[in-house]
Write the C-alpha cells for this entry.
Amino acid sequence: MESFVHSSRIDQPLENVFAWHIREGAFERLKPPWEKFEVIGRSGSIQNNGIVKLRTKIGPLSMKWVVRHAEYIPEKQFKDIQIKGFFPSFVHSHLFDRFGTSCMLEDRIEYSLPGGQIGRLAAHRYVDRNLRKIFDYRHRTISQDLRSHYVINSIRKSERPLTIAITGSSGFVGSALMPFLTTGGHRVVPLTRKKHLPPSVRTNQGQIRSQFNLDPLTSNRVDAVINLAGENIFGKWTKEKKRKLSESRISATTALCEQLASLDEPPSVLVSVSAIAYYGDRGDELLSEDSQAGITASSVPNKVPSIDYLSNLCRGWESATHIAKEAGIRVVNLRLGIVLSSSGGFLAKILPIFKLGLGGRIGRGNQYVSWIALEDLITIMLTVIADETFSGPINAVSPNPVTNADFTDLLGKTLSRTTFVAVPKFLLRLTVGQELTDALLLSSSRAIPSRLIESGYQFRFPYLELALRDTLGKI
C-alpha cells in the first residue's frame, strides 16, 4: 500500500474552506487543465455518500473511474473511495483543521498499484510525481479562489449569493466560469439554446426572437446576465461562416437584450463579451478602452479606408447591447484577448504541434498578442458584476502583451521544445484563408487593461510565463 500526503495552510477561515469543497462544481474547479478528466455522471452529494462517475485517460487508454463519498464529518473530513478504476485500491481523505483564523488543509491518499511489486517499481515514482503536481495546483487554486471571493464580497459589501444567468455556459469559458461561481456560493442559471431557431427570425411586433430559452428569467429574480455565446471564429470565412458569426453575436445579443429590457424585473447588470479585434491591426500602438476602432488602409488610390471585418463585427456586437443600456441595465462590454488555458481554446489547438517540436512564430513574429489567463478572465467577470463603477468597454487582457515571437519562445521554453520552425504567411493564407490569416493571425493588437488597472484589480497571472507554467503544470 502506497501513501501520499499534501498539506498547506489556506489563509481563510476553516468554515469557508470546507464550504467551498462541498459546493456544486468543486471537482470541476479542482481538475487541473492539463489532466483529461470528465464527469459523466453524479448521484447524491458529499454529505450523503454520493457517487461520481468519471472518464479519464492514462496515456492512450480511456477508462471509467467511479468513486463514492464517505465518512463525512462537517468541518472535519470526507473521503473519496474508488469503486471502479485503474488502482486495485484508492482512498482519498480530505482533512480540515483549524489553525487560528486560517485552515490547515490536508489531502491524504492511500493506494495500491496494479502488477504487485513489479507495478510498484515501475509506476510508484511516476504516480507520486503526478499527484504532487496535481495537488500543488489544487491547493493553489483553492487559496486563490477563496481570496478572490473575499475581495469581491468586500467590494459588494455583502456575502449574499448572487443569481447569475449565462449564455454559452457549456463553452470553453462558460464551463470554467460556472464552477468558479458555484463554489463561491452563487447560483447559476444556464440559458440554453432553442433547437433549430435562427436568431434572425422576427416576431409580428418586429422584435428579434431569441435563440435562447429565456423562461428561467421570468421565473427567477436574476442579479446579472453574462453573455458568452458566439460561433467559433476559426475556420474559413465563407459567406455562410460570416453569416453564422454575425447571427451568433450581433443578432443573438440584440434578441437577448430586447428580452432583458422587457422583463418586469430586469437584471441590474449585463456582461457581454466582445474582443480586442475591435481595434484592428495597430502595430505597436498602445490601445486603451478609449482607442478608436480599427481601420484597414485601402489599396485603391483616393479611396477612404474601411473598417475591417472583425472590427466591424465587434462594433456591431457591442452596439447590440445599447438596447439593454437604454432600459436602465448597467452594461459591461468585455473586450477579450486570446484566452489561455491548456483545457481549450487557442492554446489547446497549438499544443500538439509545439509538443512535437514543430511550433514556431507566425510570419515575421513582430505582431503583438494580447492575452488573458482563463483564471483571470472568470475572476474579472465576477468583479465587474460586483463593482458598480464598471460600465462600457473593458479590456480583459493581461497588462503585459507580448509579440508572437516572444509568445512562441516562452511556450517552447515551458514545454522544453525547440521553436525554430517559422510558419510562412503564404502557407497560412493557403490553409485557413487570407482574410482570417490577415485579420487574426497576422494582425497586431497591443491592448492594455487601463480600467482594470485603475480599479486596483490584482491579476493572478500578469506575466505570460507564469500563466503558461500554471496551466501546463510546469510550476
In short: The longest helix spans residues 116-156.
